[in-house]
Amino acid sequence: MQDIPVVTSPMQPLIAIIGGTGLTELEGPELTQTHDINTALGKPSSLIQEGTWNGQRVLFLARHGHPHAVPPHKVNYRANILALQQLGATHIVAVNAVGGIHSEMVSGRIAVPHQIVDYTYGRENTFFDGDFRPLDHIDLTHPYDETLRQALMVAGKQAGLSVSDFGVYAATQGPRLETIAEIVRLERDGCDLVGMTGMPEAALARELNIPYASICLVVNPAAGKSDGEITMDEIRAVIGTGMGQVRDMLGALLEK
Ligand code: HPA
Predict the structure, then answer these.
(1) Which ranges carry the Nucleoside phosphorylase domain (predicted)?
(2) Pocket of ligand 1 (CB under 6 A)
(3) Do 20 and 94 contact (CB within 8 A), yes or no?
(4) ipTM exceeding cut-off 0.95 for this assembly
(5) pLDDT band, very low/low/confident/very high, at 22 (cuts 50, 70, 90)
(6) What is the average pLDDT across 97-111?
(7) CA of 98 to the centre of ligand 1 (A)
(8) How far apart are CA 109 and CA 107, in angstroms?
């Protein structure tokens, strides 16, 4: 891994990858262990795999379970982040399949977003709820860790990919996709990408002070951004090749 200074801890960095739709297992690493973790806030979405990839230890969690079955609004985001912390994760790289709103965000495009607008509701979205931890208010001015974002951009380059270094990520509730009017509103709000799982995940990582960034793969034009309706066949086709590129980028990130 390059460009990620471990300033506050003498520990070796341990990157955790949270895989989303299309990335329920990681083929790169040589598996060394599987962790069946239970946290004070429940079980994470899947067993957590530990492996070695390009000489680095790595953790992998499938956000929607393996096989893919947990809908975005039912993911236990708190248990996922807590479990990764319990296993010693020092950085979290999220992988998110998204719809493209900005003209640059065409199907197959990979972006490393820099901002978030949260449109989700009814999700357990904090550790500081007065029960698990006393009430507190964290800063989220920059929801993604800039050093990790830059490392992802370098990794993209090393993997020979053209990666967008920006993106305002709109987190919607799902599991349905949006209406045209909703996408018009998100665009008016300044959003470039739309997905269902970016929040509360990013905020929870920040609450535990774990640097967090995302690799977004655009798998369809958002509603109204193409002539037709959005089909799962179209999404699956993009995931087929796109997630291979995301894997290459992750492999490059871990390379010493
Ligand atoms: N909208 C919301 N989430 C998504 C989309 C979309 O168009 N595509 C993939 N995840």
Answers:
(1) 15-253
(2) 97-99, 172, 177-178, 194-196, 219-220, 222
(3) yes
(4) yes
(5) confident
(6) 98
(7) 5
(8) 6
- Cβ-in-10-Å burial (0-12, 13-18, 19+) of 149 comes to buried
Tally of CB atoms within 10 A around 6: 14
* Structure tokens, 152: 């992802």
Binding residues for phosphate: 21, 63-64, 197
Residue 255 alpha carbon to ligand 1 centre in Å: 31
> Please, is 141 exposed, middle or buried when counting C-beta atoms within 10 Å of its C-beta (0-12, 13-18, 19+)?
exposed
| Alpha helices (H) in 23-145, listed in sequence order | 77-86
Assigned token pair, 205: 């990582």
| pLDDT tens track for 192-201 | 999 999 999 9
Atom 3 (ligand 1) nearest CA:
195
Omega prior to 67 cis, within 30 of 0: yes
Ligand 1 mean position, distance from CA 230 (Å) = 9
Q: Other CB atoms closer than 10 Å to residue 202's CB: what's the count?
A: 26
Q: What is the CA radius of gyration of the chain?
A: 17
